[in-house]
Amino acid sequence: MKALVKTAKGPGHVELKSDWPKPTAQKGWVVMQVAGCGICGTDIHILEDTHKNWPPVVLGHEYSGRIVEVGEGVENFKIGDRIVCEQHNLACMTCDACRRGAIQLCPSKRSPGWGIDGAFAEYVALPAHLLHKIPDGVSFRTATVTEPTAICITGLDRVNLKSGERVLVIGPGPVGILSALIAKASGASEVVLLARPSSRERLALAATLGITTYELDGSDILATIGNTFDLAIDSTGAGDALNLAINATRRLGRVLELGLSSQAEISFALNAAMTRAISIHMSMSSEYSSWDRALALMAAGNYDPAAITSIYSLDDWQSAFHDVEKRTAVKAIITPQDFSVLDETQ
Fold first, then answer.
1. Which tens digits make up the pLDDT trace of 190-210?
2. Radius of gyration of the chain (CA)
3. Under a CB-based contact definition with an 8 Å cutoff, are residues 37 and 341 in contact?
4. Given 87, 163, 189, 339, which residue has the most CB atoms within 10 angstroms?
5. Which domains does the chain show, CATH number per domain?
């Protein structure tokens, strides 16, 4: 089968193979025919060899598809089911995080796309205990964005977003725009998205989705938007963005960090956070319940992330990676099938 493979350690070493072995369904696992798989920043880092990986390994961990083979002992799933899957494979179940039920934080887990074979391929093998069924009416294109949606929901759970609250989001990447859309769908009275002028096109896209947007053009942005947001979300991991989030939040407000920094340490506006008694929350990965709620939001029809996606063929993977790196695509989805499969809703 065709598969996009990280063949060796080091920068680069990513090739589209035409003769990669098709997986089979082992006990407790299924084989999924891939409908679509989204490019994440992690995939770029694996290409650059700045994220852990175990080559040779098929890339891709944000995916949707249909079951074509079921292994021994699998219950509640059958051939033909449309599915997505959590990424927490091979969690040790013995560390502190696992024993607390937070398998997503297990330091030993080996997620598809870097630890075990992922879904930039025609088929992928997946453990049945991490599967979720896609509701009828939700397209494969929309469902492919379940994983980053679940990440955002997990983060918003940590800060206990309430109906009627005002929310600020910094950064117009997939996590930033999705967080803004979910906050809006969850009853926020106002959602504001900030970004640099280099992201003007992404701000324009967010504006078409009902999000209020402003550019960070060097002027005093707080003089424009104020400093009384109930919740500020930084999706960038940049120190200046986190500090802006702190200064834009009302006293006793909350700040949610959803980004990873490229630096080991960043500057931190300690006094501003302390004198405002700000609660700062860090959130990493996604919890089990967030996946079902992500799919339920999509099925309800008041949240559809398809608008931020662009579609590419597996053969054209280099263009997809290029457009993500150059920020001309927000969420690129690669499919090994005809593009029309992504429109299937049952």
1. 999 999 999 999 999 999 999
2. 20
3. no
4. 87
5. 3-133+304-343 (3.90.180.10), 149-282 (3.40.50.720)
